[in-house]
């Protein structure tokens, strides 16, 4: 019965932390016409340029769209609606855990007509207050060689309650913070 309690405590403390540690991001925005009015029910398709996977969406009544659960990478955002020219924003870069705003202005015209726009890097990300970083394979391999698969946790195996404590270990957080600082330099 004690083992079951430990498992429940472990799940209760680790699962929320695991959910929060995702690298997926989102692309959001508003679709407007040339006068600045919002365009409801416009079709927006976000396509990953590396995998060619598309995520379609239709804007709501206020012209807003939200495409979640996107992996980091380069995307194109395409918006279309009857009575307007199709607009494509090329090479939008989505970083780890980023919510990227891509607003689109659609000129009046025929669907067959299209306008391509080169994406500009945003100066500030105001949609979300998180920090993420892509860690390359070399850095991960280096840390694995340095600490091994059991690493610095091997001394905790003898105490059954320590498995739950591993998720919130102060030592782990300090090490992660120092490693993140080293990788960013």
Low-confidence stretches: 15-19, 150-169
The CA-CA distance between the termini, in Å, is: 48 Å
CATH superfamily of the largest domain: Carboxypeptidase-like, regulatory domain
Biggest sheet, in brief?
Answer: 5 strands, mixed
> What's the CATH architecture of the largest domain?
Sandwich
- Helical content class: 25-40%
Write the topology of this structure.
Layout: H1 2-20, E1 25-33, E2 43-48, E3 54-58, E4 64-70, E5 73-80, E6 86-94, E7 99-101, E8 104-106, E9 114-118, H2 137-147, H3 162-166, H4 170-184
Parallel strand pairs: 1-7, 1-8, 6-9
Antiparallel strand pairs: 1-4, 2-3, 2-5, 5-6
Keywords:
185 residues, alpha/beta, Immunoglobulin-like, 2 domains, five-stranded mixed beta sheet, four-stranded mixed beta sheet, 4 helices, 9 strands
């Amino acid at each position: 019965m004690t083992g079951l309690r430990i498992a429940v405590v472990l799940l209760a403390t680790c699962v929320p932390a695991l959910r929060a540690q995702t690298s997926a991001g989102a692309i959001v925005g508003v679709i407007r016409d040339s006068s600045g009015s919002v365009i409801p029910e416009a079709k927006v398709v976000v396509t990953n340029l590396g995998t060619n996977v598309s995520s379609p969406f239709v804007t709501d009544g206020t012209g807003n769209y939200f495409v979640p659960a996107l992996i980091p990478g380069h995307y194109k955002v395409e918006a279309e609606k009857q009575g307007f020219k199709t607009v494509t924003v090329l090479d939008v870069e989505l970083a780890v855990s980023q919510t990227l705003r891509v607003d689109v202005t659609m000129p009046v015209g025929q669907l067959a007509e299209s306008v391509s726009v080169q994406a500009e890097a945003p100066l500030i990300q105001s949609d979300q207050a998180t920090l993420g970083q892509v860690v390359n394979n070399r850095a991960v391999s280096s840390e694995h060689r340095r600490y091994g698969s059991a690493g610095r946790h091997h001394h905790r195996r003898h105490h059954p309650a320590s498995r739950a404590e591993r998720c919130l270990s102060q030592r782990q957080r300090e090490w992660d913070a120092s490693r993140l600082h080293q990788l960013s330099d």
